[in-house]
Design brief:
Number of helices: 2
Order of helices and strands: HH
Number of strands: 0
Shape: flat
Radius of gyration: 15 Å
Strand content: under 5%
Distance between the termini: 40 Å
Oligomer: single chain
Length: 72
């Protein structure tokens, strides 16, 4: 049985994972639109805001919003 203390953590986990799923789908769509199998083959790799947002979503899903800054 879930306690009141577990419910917010569980809903936060869902929120972080859902955000990651959205960013992952956006990234995959971009790769598909540009006929790429990987971002590493993209000329915009180092300046890509979409990829930066995906990497940030990965970090936030791992830290569940409790981590410090993440520089990449």
């Amino acid at each position: 049985m879930e306690t009141a203390q577990q419910a917010p953590e569980s809903s936060a986990r869902d929120r972080w994972e859902q955000a990651l799923d959205r960013k992952h789908k956006e990234l995959q769509q971009c790769q598909s639109d540009h006929a790429l199998e990987s971002c590493l083959k993209c000329a915009s790799l180092l300046d890509c805001q979409l990829r930066d947002a995906y990497v940030k979503a990965v970090y936030e899903s791992m830290s569940k919003g409790h981590g410090g800054g993440f520089e990449f």
